[in-house]
Each structure stands twice: as C-alpha cells, then as structure tokens.
Structure prediction request, 314 residues.
Amino acid sequence: MSVAFTFPGQGSQAVGMGKELAETYAEARAVFEEVDEALGEKLSAVMFDGPEETLTLTANAQPALMAVSMAVIRILEARGLNLKDKVSFVAGHSLGEYSALCAAGTFSLANTARLLRIRGNAMQAAVPFGEGAMAAIIGLEHGDVEAVCQEASTAGSCQIANDNGGGQLVISGAKAAVEKAAALASEQGAKRAIMLPVSAPFHSALMAPAADAMREALSKVEKKSPVVPLIANVCAAPVTDAQEIAALLVEQVTGQVRWRETVEWFGANGVTTLYELGSGKVLTGLARRIDKTVNGISVNTPADIDAALATMLG
Prediction:
C-alpha cells in the first residue's frame, strides 16, 4: 500500500477552520502563532472568527489554508508519523502545492506563509478588478474545452486553468473571452457553464505580473529538496530538485493545474490512499470521481487525525 498526502487549494477556506485543532493540540497553536508572527498580524483570529469576506481575500485565504494543513502535519509528526517513512508522494492544488512543499521540508513554515502572502497580493494586483473572469465547464472533454477557448480567444486571452476531473474544467482569462467560451461550451453540449465569483483570472496568461513577482520572491528564499517527491501541478509528474520546483511554481501562476492527471498518475503508480490534509474535503471528492481505485480520506478534525494515525502507524 502506497500513500500520498494532498493539500487543498483556494475555495476550501471556511470561518472557524483550525479552531478545534488549536483548542485541542499545542502543535496546532504553535503553527498558527508562527504564521501570525511571520505575517505580522493575527491571521488566526480571522480564520477562527471571520469575518468571511476578510478570510476570503486571496492574500488571506492562501496562507490561512496552508496554516491549517501544516497544523495537521505537525500534529501527526508529534505523534510518531515520519513523512519520509510513511508517505510516498505529496501534491497540492494550486496554493496547496506550497503546503505540500512546506510539509516535505522544501520551505520553512514562516517562509511559506510569506511566499503565499506575496502570491495572493500579486495575483490580486495582476489584473484590474472586473477585467478578468473564470468559468466552470461541466460535461465536456478536455480537448473540446481547449477548442472552445481557442475560438473564444478572438475576444481576448482564454485558457484552461484547472482540470479537476470528473468532467469539470475551469477556464480563465479576459472577461469577454471567458463569457464567449462559456456560451460556446453550452452550444457544444456542456451540461453547465457557470461564471465563477472570483476576484481575478487565476492560472491564466493575464497572471504574468504575478509570475514575475513569484520568480523574484522564490529566488530569495531558502529551498531544500523535498524529503519525498512532489507531483507538480503543471507537469503532473514527480520532481525532487529544489531549483526545478521553484521554476515550476513560477510557471504554475499562469499555467494549468492538472489535477485529474495528478490523481491518474497516483493510481497508475501504486498509490492506493490519498490523505487530504487541511480544511474541507474538495480533493477527496475529486479523487473519487477521477479514479475509483484510489481511496480519498480527508483529515481535518481530531477524530480524523486519530483514525489516520491508527491506520498509518498500525
């Protein structure tokens, strides 16, 4: 049996996240305090008590989600889990890739928090509000959605941002082009084409200024090779070289999150269980839709942690 740890991305945040962990475990409190200190503000207070609109801001949601994931990791480690011995691979959805790398020792916790704050601010600032958009396309194949984006690109930049599997693809780019692509997708027989309530066109070519910001930030931060391979978003393949990982993180800002292919890679390479560490259960649900041979398990409560330890440490 081979295990991989996965880490959620934006959209999995919720007011109250991490609160029960902080009340139950000293290790979780230490993580949240270290993140607060790294950012110079009480992000943990926003995580625990809201308001929701403040937590949902990209610059807050990204480090907050990472903090909850790392709290779970630190709790598991304090109870005897050695990542290198028990886990074969790590992967994360978009910002979750930073959580995965922090868990695997590539970045320190404080540096990961600061990188994600830079990333969130840079992504928000890259495109003036209202000029970009994203849409979910349900029920079309990858090639069909690619063709629709190509046709719609006469109205501006438009591309696939996330391939989430289970017939769900997210497109991103200039507002007029994304709206045109969504309409074309409906004409092509998509079950649904839904404009998403997002603040920026993430994972599109319009994010190039944010990619430049991350290239600079990543060049200045200490990086180590991860203790287990990362299955990277943009190539859906294992990487272990710290410099290559940094380059892929830059590429990821404007590139496609290939999550369907990532889960398929796990299934084809002997991974039987994906533990989703952190807030929510989004990746666990996606895993079930993508590959029935891979068992997805979310770990974000004390009971989840006890169950995971019982299974993994036996």
